[in-house]
């Protein structure tokens, strides 16, 4: 039975889907398996991949952060403005990361201390951060960044097809995965997502935990903004638009329960590669951007519907099995009757 359960784990199904997409990619184009295409495939989703682990923690805790894409834009704008003003990147990047922490702190305080729904709060800060980005930089773009910075954005690690920015994703996903699955704060995140009230009575500082999670989300979104600036060698206020939907899609596709309390970082990592390969295959097949957007929307729906249907079916089966069991302490007469 345990082996059967292992075979139907969401992560295993994702791995099978990913393998199927890879096979489809090899049939669509001969360049699919080239190192250059693999590098482009990773680079196309790297900012989304960096933000996905932090969003995983937020959703597992029973909340959501819709403001991440605007924090990406704000961090790009501030970094560009600082660079244009003569501030070295060694100083500008830490300033941008602090802004991300402060933006997350604002979200966390309004949600955890103010008792406001995260959907409403982060929808508001989605507009707030984007407005600040437009005020900071306006419609202009800033370029002429140092070569070392831009090389980090679109260069690859020597001897490998992996872009330098992939290291950022590995570090972020690795650290968050260890904290979530191997430490007591991670267990608290799961507990809060399942039942915040019970967790509070059990001694978990729910408000402090949620504030910390939103601060982490803001920090990681600002980091993604720095990576995006390096990759495009340009800073613009409209950077990151539309990223939130895709990040949430990745997290839910990775098996995270939209209602909180369940999910894994390995599943989200698999979802990152699945979405990256899917987008790459569609582009190689010359599928229009509109169809690609429809595919992402369908993935979001599927990733929510299928797990919930599976859980409902499992609950129905468990109830049916329980109803057929004899009451505790009862005697099965068929076993005690004589010949």
Structural class: mainly alpha
Rg, Å, rounded? 23 Å
> N-to-C SSE series?
HHHHHHHHHHHHHHH
CATH topology: ABC transporter involved in vitamin B12 uptake, BtuC
Helical run tally: 15
CATH architecture: Orthogonal Bundle
At the first level of CATH, the class is: Mainly Alpha
Explain how this protein is built.
The protein has one domain: Orthogonal Bundle (ABC transporter involved in vitamin B12 uptake, BtuC). It has helices at residues 2-7, 10-28, 35-60, 68-84, 89-113, 118-137, 147-154, 165-182, 184-194, 196-201, 206-232, 243-253, 265-284, 289-324, 333-336. The protein contains 15 helices and no strands. The protein is globular, with a radius of gyration of 23 Å. Helix 7 (147-154) crosses helix 11. It is mainly α.
What key attributes describe this structure?
single chain; 339 residues; mainly alpha; ABC transporter involved in vitamin B12 uptake, BtuC; 15 helices; 75% helix; globular; disordered C terminus
